[in-house]
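Re: the request from the purification team.
They wanted to know what the chain is likely to look like in 3D before they choose a buffer screen. I agreed to run a prediction and write the result into the notebook, where they can find it.
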Amino acid sequence: MKKQSFFNYIKLLRITSWPKNFFVCVPAVFSKHIFSSEYILTIIIGFLTFSIASSTVYVFNDIVDASKDALHPLKKNRPLASGLITRKNAIVLALFLFFIFFGLTTQVPFYYGLIVWGYLIINFLYSIILKQIVIVDLFCIASGFMLRVLGGALLISVVVSNWLVLTTLFLSLFLAAMKRRVEIASSPNASEQREVLKDYSLIFIDQISALTGSGVILSYALYTVAERTVTVFGTENLVFTTMFVIFGIFRYMYLVYKKDKGENVIEVLMTDIPMIINLFFYIISILYIIYLRNSALLQ
């Protein structure tokens, strides 16, 4: 019984969603600092700070949405919605996480701390009211990824390319739109579970998805061939990684449209074999081109 109880609390924390916080590392990768010993501890603490913040948000959101989650075909199995964890215990856990988060923010650079506080506040407001406002809800979901990347830059004091910022913005909105599409298509009581879904339609969501998906591909492609990018990395070979981005967007759309997957981006990335293979080769290619440029693909 204790093991089951412990597992339920771990499930409530949604540690399986922590990989989203690796977006904090994006600026370090593209600024060629990911292997710098002077930044490793800072990046780890920054990652943990965002992870605790995200778990605090998840617990708070589940407390607020417990009754509505009970109507969802999948979310009804969450610990709070199913009654496996009491509301009182969830509140205690949320407060405990908040105090850990507060302590961690004193160990990171000031402006990074402000970014994470901003993430926390936006998501608290999202859980209470902003999720009920059409389109604003998408930007609230998307803000999480944007703040992770911007925070990652402030964490190690580097400048992020404008094209990379735009890529992150479009990718964030794309994933938010895909999440909404799955919610509408997979649940017969979608609008009861989330009121804002009454203001969306599959056609509208599909248009947003097409625009933002195209934005991801174009922004990333332009980033790889930008003069600043070529100068910093000393090679034009980064452009070849665009094919992995294109495949990733198309594959994700396929999983959403044909398989009704995509509500949880980490679940998709970690369970779909083609996505795993594509992500693996993308990471290897990025590390090879950026950190081993003396052995560039084309001379």
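For the purification team: Residues 37-69 form the longest helix (33 residues).
Please add any questions underneath this entry.
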